[in-house]
Specification:
The protein has 385 residues and is an all-alpha fold. The chain contains 14 helices and 3 strands.
């Protein structure tokens, strides 16, 4: 009889002695191995750029954007490829919203063109001799431009493929400005979103799991931070230092996560009472292991939909500041181009209108995609059959 009960006692002891933090660490998965290699390479490249080279290879914004792409590849794209059945299920639900599918395709084009285009195209340069050129297939009075680059027919300057979307008052091609503006919008939206989601998720899950004093301190800090005027802080910083995209991203990223933290905390409080959380605690799992393996994955759908809806807000913030002249004038932005053409709406409407159309459809597309993701990822949104 003792021989029969001995294995059960031994099994219980071995189970309780499990090193939860090391669980899954033996024979690291391929994704973890590649993530470690990519992280080391990234840190080494940043250190080399900052401390070794005389000339900066990439700006701080570009390094943050590269980090965002790495995070997206390992924590978004890779799981989607691995869990094909779950991905197919979400896709079937997502594609029910046709406007969201079209919006997602449009955003993919904007992302690819905005990421690759500036690497292949030269930065727009001043050319006063090509000022006020109309878009291709359109024409304007030839007396308006300084010099008509295209053909002149019946006193009208015809658009040319050299400037397919026309030019500004200082002769910069709007097509190039739109492409470079895509990069700025994607950088601001995605990088700021990554910072906000990372901090907000960490604070929200910690406040929900460690109730009592920890929850009280974290939430009271969130209250104070949300009452702080981030806009005025940005004005002060840009007055003291040179305005840049990096400052805008860091200020709104590190001070704009309060809403996400509250949303995650609310969702995590419900998950905190689930039986699998209590089972993990009774089995001896560490707090960090439970938060990483249970709380965060089970609030991820809420985080993803909230993050998607946050991106257009950050894009609009940047466009607004650029329109007001509060960003780096050397960085082409949609808001900057719109501001430069607001005084020429009568004779050169395309200067402000074309970037405005791209800004409008980009913000609208993110909103459509965010709504569709919320319906696809949240099982509670599924109506009765």
């Amino acid at each position: 009889m003792a021989a029969d009960t001995q294995p059960e006692s031994g099994a219980t002891e071995r189970f309780e002695d499990v090193e939860w933090d090391e669980l899954g660490g033996l024979g690291l998965p391929r994704r973890t191995q590649l993530l470690v290699v990519a992280t080391v390479a990234y840190v080494g490249a940043v250190a080399f750029d900052v401390f070794v080279t005389d000339d900066v290879v990439l700006s701080g914004t570009n390094w943050l954007f590269l980090l965002t792409l790495l995070v997206g590849a390992f924590f978004v794209a890779w799981p989607l490829v691995e869990n094909r059945r779950l991905t197919a299920y979400y896709w079937r639900r997502f594609k029910k919203n046709r406007a969201a599918v079209v919006s997602a395709a449009y955003l993919v084009v904007v992302f690819v063109v905005g990421t690759v285009g500036p690497l292949l195209l030269a930065k727009p340069e001043l050319n006063v001799l090509a000022a006020y050129q109309p878009p291709v297939y359109l024409s304007v009075d030839s007396t308006v431009p300084t010099t008509c680059v295209g053909q002149t027919v019946d006193g009208l300057c015809q658009g040319t493929w050299q400037y397919p979307l026309g030019t500004t008052s200082d002769g910069k091609g709007i097509a190039k400005l739109v492409v470079f503006g895509m990069r700025v919008s994607m950088q601001v939206g995605l990088v700021t979103m990554l910072i906000v989601v990372s901090i907000g998720t960490a604070v929200g899950t910690s406040a929900a799991y460690f109730s009592g004093l920890v929850d009280e301190v974290l939430m009271r800090y969130v209250d104070i931070q949300q009452t702080f005027p981030t806009f005025f802080l940005f004005l002060i910083v840009t007055y003291l230092f040179k305005p840049s995209l990096f400052l805008l991203i860091t200020i709104f990223g590190f001070l704009g996560w309060g809403g996400i933290a509250r949303l995650v905390r609310s969702e995590a409080l419900q998950r905190r009472e689930e039986s699998y959380i209590q089972a993990a605690e009774n089995a001896g799992a560490s707090d960090g292991w439970i938060i990483r393996r249970h709380l965060i994955p089970n609030v991820s759908s809420t985080v993803i939909t909230a993050a998607t809806l946050l991106i257009p807000s950050f894009i609009l913030f940047e466009a607004t500041f650029a329109f007001l002249g509060l960003t780096d004038p050397a960085t082409p932005s949609w808001g900057q181009v719109i501001a430069s053409g607001r005084g020429d709406l009568d004779g050169a409407w395309w200067i402000a209108t074309i970037p405005g159309v791209f800004l409008f459809f980009t913000v609208l597309a993110f909103n459509f995609v965010g709504d569709a993701l919320r319906d696809a990822l949240d099982p509670r949104s599924e109506g009765e059959a």
